[in-house]
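User: I'm writing a short methods note and want a consistent example. For Anaerobic dehydrogenases, typically selenocysteine-containing, I'll paste the sequence; you return only the structure tokens, no commentary, since I'll be parsing the reply automatically.
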Amino acid sequence: MNLSRRGFFKAAGAAFATSMAFELSSKSETLAVEPSADWKLVNTEEYTNICCYCSGGCGVICSTRDGELVNIEGDPDHPINEGGLCPKGATMFQLRNVVDPETREIIKNTNRKTRPMVRRPGASEWEDITWDDAVAEIAQWVKKTRDETFETMHDGITVNRCHGIASLGGSQQNSEEEYLINKMMRSLGVIAIDNQARV
Ligand code: SF4
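Assistant:
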């Protein structure tokens, strides 16, 4: 069938009019949405940020209203992702806020941990610990483990290495953080150092 440019637009217009007539007569839910309903980003402030999930480093725009995060989406101006996000990054909003299955309201994610916790040897439950105590305890365990497992000589060769500690970096760490972690681990003599850049 030959269809001229003018004919195409006529046909498309007729199809659209028919579709609209159907929508109006069938009380479509889409058209039933209140036209006065606020656009979700009305009165928000925007901040650019980086996705926290992997070393891809995709850019995101975080929108807040009254100090509360209300939306996260890909940043179209970011050179890495140009607005796109993988499924994991696209659900980043749920780290902090989720939809209540009962009320359909957006509520704080109750599974999100905002304080350090510790599970003591032999214990089955986790308990809260302050940041100061957590850092102090980690430092004590690192010192103790390093002192007990540090090896200076092996088969007559100076090795100065620590077998008792391993370091595994997370995908959320950027290059500068990884550099510092590597530097610190090497200074302790740790040789088992790795990082998983993506999950
Ligand atoms: S997790 Fe996905 S969205 Fe986030 S930085 Fe990696 S590729 Fe990008």
